[in-house]
Design a protein that fits this description.
76% helix; single chain
Length: 89
């Protein structure tokens, strides 16, 4: 065995240890990123559910019968009779 063999063995052992630490750290980052992705997906699902609820609420509030009822009861509006309308040309 030559004089450089122990040093080479030490360098290779340190490289293997550093490589192992790198693999463990990469796996940690991968798991951390996956958890973050799952959180964002859940947030996206909640936002989509809220959006669908708001669309349903909007369609309910904007329905013809609701607008007509509100106009009559709250604003005192009424459908004009035939004699109250004028045709403009």
């Amino acid at each position: 065995m030559s004089r450089s063999a122990p040093w080479l063995l030490l360098v290779l052992a340190l490289a293997v240890i550093a490589s192992g630490i790198g693999v463990v750290y990469a796996k940690y980052l991968s798991r951390k990123t996956f958890v973050q992705l799952q959180g964002l997906n859940a947030e996206c699902d909640r936002a989509e559910t809220r959006w669908l609820r708001l669309q349903l609420e909007e369609s309910t509030l904007a329905s013809y019968s609701r607008v007509e009822t509100y106009a009559h009861s709250q604003l005192g509006l009424h459908m004009p009779a035939a004699g109250e309308t004028q045709l403009l040309r």
